[in-house]
Amino acid sequence: MKYTTEMIIKRPLVEVAKKMNSPENMKHWQEGLVSTEHISGTPGEFGAKMKLNYDFGKRKMELIETITKQNFPKEFHATYNTKGVRNIQQNYFEETMEGHTKWICKNEFQPTNFMMNAMLFLMPRAFKKQTKKYMTNFKNFAENGTSIANA
After folding, report:
1. For residues 136 and 9, is the Cβ–Cβ distance under 8 A?
2. CB 147 within 8 A of CB 35
């Protein structure tokens, strides 16, 4: 399943990239994130791997992020692997005429087991909704300093 989500962030491109390129900031916009752990490579650079642990109440999830392209402030691409699915994500950042930032997030979800294949087929909106939620959380954090960690 592939889809693209776009959002305008009313902050300058360089400021958005700086906030996006900080693992410490992830807790402010990624709901359910409980910890991050560097695994290998130079943090934030091409090839670096990081373990992300999430807690969604009854459901716990561990993702392995591998950076596949890091060209801030314009691009950040990564793959996220977890049990049953691989998410290939390409993030593009463009400066608008108003001096704001346009964030284009391209996602491709590849199921690696039958159960996730069925979920992607039956519930594609759930994945798109989650992407939109995280993007909105980041927008609120970047524009207003609003953190979900304080909620």
Report:
1. no
2. no
Which residues lie closer than 8 Å to 41 by C-beta, 6 or more apart? Answer: 47, 48, 49, 67
The torsion angles phi and psi of 4, rounded to 5 degrees, stand at -125, 135
CB 132 within 8 A of CB 5: yes
CB proximity list for 87: less than 8 A, separation 6 or greater = 79, 80, 81, 107, 108, 109, 110
Q: What is the pTM of this model?
A: 0.94
Whether the pLDDT of residue 149 is over 90: the answer is no
Average pLDDT over residues 52-68: 95
Mean pLDDT calculated for residue range 75-93: 97
